[in-house]
Design goal:
Radius of gyration: 17 Å
CATH architecture: 2-Layer Sandwich
Shape: globular
Largest sheet: 5 strands, antiparallel
Number of helices: 6
Structural class: alpha+beta
Order of helices and strands: HEHEHEHEEHH
Length: about 170
């Protein structure tokens, strides 16, 4: 079993390494298409602030999902001496039942680095809002076990709903 886990981990590392060696240029990948298989981006028909508000409202309707916080990353960058950047908000979204299920076994505790699920809403130079998020289905499939069961199933299904900001 340990050998299978080692092989799976090495395969994932090699796959990730090969993906990062040839990153897609922002111009070569149309909006709404995966930048990498496990990181997605979709345009929003709304403003940044309205997109954040709709995602928050969608999450709050789906109890026990919660928005643990909305962090204005652009403000933090500026506050700590960084340059002015366009608006970027990080929404920390969690479902305590799913998080708890994934953290029951010592062997899965590492998955806490993905918790809470972070969704970003940002403005690009075209003045439009975009949503960046982890592809829960892909992440779950990469790791298997309880993580696959939770991430590829109920988390991915909920993500589809709370990221629906209208067309």
């Amino acid at each position: 079993m340990k050998i299978l886990r080692l092989v799976a981990t090495l395969s994932a590392v090699l796959m990730l390494g090969s993906l990062t060696l040839q990153p897609a240029s922002a111009d070569s990948v149309p909006a709404g298409i995966a930048k990498m298989p496990f990181i997605m981006e979709q345009p929003s028909p709304l403003s940044v602030d309205a997109t954040v508000a709709v995602i928050k409202a969608n999450v709050e309707k789906m109890g026990p999902w919660t928005v643990n916080g909305v962090k204005p990353l652009h403000q933090s960058i500026k506050k700590h001496g960084g340059p002015d950047v366009r608006p970027v908000y990080l929404l920390e979204i969690c479902n305590p039942m799913h998080a708890g299920a994934m953290l029951q076994d010592d062997k899965d505790m590492w998955a806490s680095v993905m918790m809470p699920c972070t969704v970003s809403v940002y403005e690009k130079s075209d003045g439009k809002a975009y949503i960046g998020f982890m592809n829960a289905r892909m992440v779950g499939m990469m790791f298997g076990g309880k993580i696959a069961e939770v991430m590829s199933g109920p988390v991915a299904e909920a993500q589809d709903k709370f990221l629906n900001v209208g067309k």
